[in-house]
UniProtKB/TrEMBL annotation:
It is an enzyme of class 3 (hydrolase). Its EC number is 3.1.1.61. The lineage of its organism: Bacteria, Pseudomonadati, Bacteroidota, Cytophagia, Cytophagales. This is protein-glutamate methylesterase. Gene3D superfamilies: Methylesterase CheB, C-terminal domain.
Amino acid sequence: MTSFSAHLIVIGTSAGGMPALTQLVEQLPATLPAAVLVVQHLSPESSGEPLITRLRRHTGLHCQLAVHNAPLQAGALYLAPPDRHLLVKNDRMLVTKGPRENNYRPAADALFRSAAVAYGPNVIGVVLTGMLHDGTAGLDFIKRCGGTAVVQDPNDAEFPSMPESALRGTDIDYAVPLHLMGRLLQELVGMPSKPLNEASVPDDLKLEASIAERVVGTTDEVNQLGRQVPLTCPECGGALWELKHGKMLRYRCHTGHAFTADGLLDKTQQAMEETLWVALRMMEERKNLLTSMAVRGEGLWSVQQEEKLEEIKRHINRLREFLINGQRQEGYPNENGSEDQAIS
């Protein structure tokens, strides 16, 4: 392991990431003239150590969990700790518990942005197998600062969603299967580094990076990044700003939560479905209460409860049909595992 060189490789992965990372680091020599920083989506309760232990068995790179304010070293791999963002600045790592981005902490987008601002054209961003959209905006940040964007060929990925999202969202330089990626990365870091021209780093990315380092921003700062829109942050309930820079449509609140448009759509869909399932539960409880009242009642009053009961059954059936059809469109089985069942 040697002192840090000018090249930086940043990797984002999620579902299927453990075997993918293992296969990739097997191809990288201990003498790699670059530092490698990895965001693997982990549960907040995990330690990250099992992944580090597994990676050490397959590579000569010095593998460790990232430590706040520790210096970067060439020939080393640093894994973002669970529930912490990993950022870089001045050849050092920053480990923070900032707001989630695209519902993730650590987030590849946060790492990629800080790397792009700090190292510009000498950054190589890599998105591997995973679900949803993390890393897509990050690769766009890297491209805007003159860096290189690499994705795992979606046909080669166990979970192709993240690579596919990146290919749709920005201009990718290389889309390669995993068994060829190590050689590609060695070729890229073997090229002469380029001087960082700070004037070429977009001001909006500098501002976003500085907000992430401080954990929280201000409304004045976010006003510089975009325009406030009539949408609320699904994480904190605050106002959202639509960002006006770069190729991608993005949103963020002043507390620091950030989303691509696709990520925001997914998050609001989840929140809506949770609300509707609560409503369905309450309707079921009302149906049960009306059933008991109708059975115990007499005459006109009992007939009125029966009418209310039939009405609530119709509402339950409609709501269940809506929820189950929505699950089918997203590729989920319905809660019965087979055919829909009407309320009777």
